[in-house]
Prior knowledge:
mainly alpha; 2 helices
Amino acid sequence: xxxxxxxxxxxxxxxxxxxxxxxxxxxxxxxxxxxxxxxxxxxxxxxxxxxxxxxxxxxxxxxxxxxxxxxxxxx
Length: 75
């Protein structure tokens, strides 16, 4: 998932406990690696969400007829 791009120096004030926890959870060797992995996860999740919304919209507008075979939805 990681993309090679330009790198820039940024300075943040982050919660040290959260950063340590993310580093451990993501099995990152450095704090920078933990932040990059976390950002990759967020970007991938956004892409999955976007694709899910698009698929749902295609399904809803497809005109397919859905019937309640067992009759349980009308209760």
